[in-house]
Amino acid sequence: MTLKFADAESADQALPLVLLEKDALAEWLGGQSAATAAWVRASGFEAALGTALLIPGEDGAPKAALAGYGDAAARARGRFHLAGAAAKLPEGVYRLETDLTGDALANEALGWLLAQYAFDRYAKASGIKARLVAPDGVDGRRLETIAAGEALTRDLINTPASDMGPDALEAACRDLASQFGASCDVIHGEALLEQNFPMIHAVGRASAEAPRLIDMRWGKSGPALTLVGKGVCFDTGGLNLKPGASMGLMKKDMGGAATVLGLAHDIMALGLPLRLRVLIPAVENAVSGESFRPGDILTSRKGLTVEINNTDAEGRLVLADALAYGAEESPDLMLSMATLTGAARVAVGPDLSPYYSDDAGVVAALEGAAARVADPVWRLPFWEPYEKMIEPGIADLDNAPKGGFAGSITAALFLRRFAGEGLRYTHFDIYGWQPTVAPGRPKGGTGMGARALLDALPEVLGL
C-alpha cells in the first residue's frame, strides 16, 4: 500500500485546514466573518482533540476546515492527533495551516500518512480518504519513506501464516533486497545442521515448510549494523501446546522480523552510509513427530548447551543461533527485535517498546529519538542477579526458568549470552500489535521502536 502526500499540483486547489488549540479558538473566531463565527458556534465545535469541522462558503461548498488540537494535557495522553481529526474529514485534498514546526509538525504529518493504511489483502478496506499536502518545513520524502517501511511491517504481521510461512517470509526478504540492490542468502533445512545452526533447525523441523536462516546484506562502507529479527511465522507452542485463546494471535510472532525489515527498508531507501546486515531465523513452531521435546538438551552454535523446559520459549532459541552468527563478524552495533515474552506485554502494555541496553550512548540517543519522533520506548534492565535463574545445572542454560518471575529480563539475559563479549548490543521485546483503533494506528500489526532507532542511528554510529 502506497502512503503518500497529495501531489504538488493539488496544492492550489487544496482546502485550507486550520489546526486550533482550545485556547486559541476564541481569538481565531474574532478574526472571522460573522457568518463563519456563527456557523462554528452553532456546530458546537470547541477545538477538542481529534475533532473536525467543514466551513461552508457563500455557495454552500466548503471553503475551509477546522481541526481541533485540544490542550497540552489531552495531547500528552496520545500521539498523531491530527490523524484523529483527519479521519473525520471527507475525501479531498487539504493544506494545513498551523503554528506547529519541527518535530511536532513532522509527527502530525506522518500520522496523517499512517492513517491512510488499511490491510486489504482479503477484503475491501481503506484508511482515511482525506489527503494532505506536505506541509512547509517537513521532509516529505523522508516521511513517505518511513510510512512505507511501517506499511511493510504491518502487511507482514497482518498476513496469516497460511500466506506468511517461512517460504513467504523469505520471498518478502528477497523482494526487499531486490528493490535496493542488496544480497540475500538463505540456509535451508538440513543445511542448517551442516552449517551449525542446530537450534534454528530443532525449533523449525516439525513444520511442513523447512526452517531457514535469511541473511541480507547492503552497503559497502561505513559502520556495520546487524539487525536480528525473530521470524516465528506461527507459534503453536510446540509440544507445550498453547491454549486456543493464546494461539489466536500467533501469526504476529514474526513481528520482530517484520519490524527489522521495515527498518531495513528505511535505512536503504534513505541511503544511510553504513553496512547493513539483516539476519532472520524463519521457522514455524509446529507439532509433529519431529517436534523438539521438553527435557531435550540442545547444543547451540556458540557451543552453549540449553535445557528445554518449555517448547513455547522457542523464540530465544532461534535468535540465539542468529545472534552468535552475527557476533562472529563483530559489528559496530547489533540489535535484536522480537515478540519474545508475554511478560513484556504485561509490564508495559502495547504502546511502549521495552528494550535492554547497557550502552550509555545507545540509551541516550534512543531515549532522545523516541521523544522526537513519537515512538515511545522504555528501558528494562539486564539485571545481573537474575543470571543464576537461567542456569539449570544440567546444561549451561535454561530456556524457560521456573517460577514465572522476571520473564522478559531472563529472556534478555539468555540472548545476551550469545551476542558476543564486548559487543554493542541492544534487544527489543516488542508486542507488535495494536489491539484497538487509535489515530494513525488501525487495529492490527504495528511497528514498534523502528522509527526511534532510525532517528538514533546517526548519533549512535557517528554517521
Automatic annotation (TrEMBL):
One of its GO terms (molecular function) is manganese ion binding. The keyword Electron transport does not apply. It comes from the Bacteria. One of its GO terms (biological process) is proteolysis. Pfam families: Peptidase_M17 (PF00883), Peptidase_M17_N_1 (PF21337). Keywords: Aminopeptidase, Hydrolase, Manganese, Protease. One of its GO terms (cellular component) is cytoplasm. Residues 310-317 form the Cytosol aminopeptidase domain. Belongs to the peptidase M17 family. PANTHER family: LEUCINE AMINOPEPTIDASE-RELATED, PEPTIDASE B. This is Leucyl aminopeptidase family protein. It comes from Rhodalgimonas zhirmunskyi.
